[in-house]
């Protein structure tokens, strides 16, 4: 069983609702510092944000979100702008339709473009929307992401009707990318039990919107979505 404090340090404390305000993001950051999570994950229009002095809280920003249907050029520009405005990490969405069509070269090029626009030490996470893909598609997309320079593959946006993270998808993703690339489980992770299951399956980062309830052991899976 993973200690709660250790789970907290794996959490990207997330607010991606379209109606989010700057005051909401300020409250998110304050709560993130209080809870001891790894980062906050916000929309690019919320940048720049103010992290309290002395805090090591990181800032993750989504790119091509939530559909992934933005052109590669737009994604690269969005990622570069986010880094310029203070993002430590970029969570980009692939074109899911390209995966369904088997156009993995296009996905590779898309990721490479964002990687070039947001070079290391910026962390690049690639959202593959695993619930919308077959196992074969998950493997192929993860291989493309790893080869294109991703630091993480991530299960879900939390906005797709097909669903969010599953233990099966996390395990398959972890087995595919090996130790060189990590896995972020995101979408529907609302309880400590779910978090521990994702970690056991191979996740090293968790996308969670209801972090306080999860860490308190109060989450019951019936609250707001976790992205």
Automatic annotation (TrEMBL):
Give me the reactions it catalyses: 2-deoxy-D-ribose 5-phosphate = D-glyceraldehyde 3-phosphate + acetaldehyde
Q: Which SUPFAM superfamilies match?
A: Aldolase
Q: Which GO terms describe its biological process?
A: 2-deoxyribose 1-phosphate catabolic process; carbohydrate catabolic process; deoxyribonucleotide catabolic process
Pathway of action: Carbohydrate degradation; 2-deoxy-D-ribose 1-phosphate degradation; D-glyceraldehyde 3-phosphate and acetaldehyde from 2-deoxy-alpha-D-ribose 1-phosphate: step 2/2
Which CDD domains does the record associate with it? DeoC
Reply yes or no: does the keyword Cytoplasm apply.
Answer: yes
Q: Does the keyword Cell membrane apply?
A: no
Q: What keywords appear on the UniProt entry? A: Cytoplasm, Lyase, Schiff base
- What's this chain's function? Catalyzes a reversible aldol reaction between acetaldehyde and D-glyceraldehyde 3-phosphate to generate 2-deoxy-D-ribose 5-phosphate.
- UniProt family annotation: Belongs to the DeoC/FbaB aldolase family. DeoC type 1 subfamily.
Q: Which HAMAP family match?
A: DeoC_type1
The protein's name: Deoxyribose-phosphate aldolase
Q: Which organism is it from?
A: Nocardioides cavernaquae
* Highest classification ranks of the organism: Bacteria, Bacillati, Actinomycetota, Actinomycetes, Propionibacteriales
């Amino acid at each position: 069983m993973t200690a709660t404090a250790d789970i907290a340090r794996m959490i990207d404390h997330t607010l991606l609702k379209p109606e989010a305000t700057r005051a909401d993001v300020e409250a998110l950051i304050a709560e993130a510092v209080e809870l001891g999570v790894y980062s906050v994950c916000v929309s690019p229009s919320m940048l720049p944000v103010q992290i309290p002095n002395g805090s090591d809280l990181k800032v993750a920003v989504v790119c091509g979100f939530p559909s992934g249907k933005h052109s590669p050029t737009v994604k690269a520009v969005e990622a570069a702008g986010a880094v310029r405005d203070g993002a430590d990490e970029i969570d980009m969405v692939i074109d899911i339709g390209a995966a369904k069509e088997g156009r993995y070269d296009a996905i590779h090029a898309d990721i490479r473009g964002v990687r070039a626009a947001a070079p290391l030490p910026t962390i690049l996470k690639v959202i593959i929307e695993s619930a919308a893909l077959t196992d074969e598609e998950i493997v192929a997309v993860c291989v493309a992401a790893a080869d294109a320079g991703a630091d993480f593959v991530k299960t879900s946006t939390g906005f797709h009707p097909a669903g969010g993270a599953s233990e099966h998808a996390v395990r398959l993703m972890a087995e595919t990318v090996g130790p060189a690339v990590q896995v972020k489980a995101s979408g529907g992770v609302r309880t400590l039990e779910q978090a521990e299951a994702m970690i056991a399956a191979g996740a090293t980062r968790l996308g969670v919107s209801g972090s306080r309830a999860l860490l308190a052991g109060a989450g019951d899976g019936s609250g707001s979505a976790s992205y």
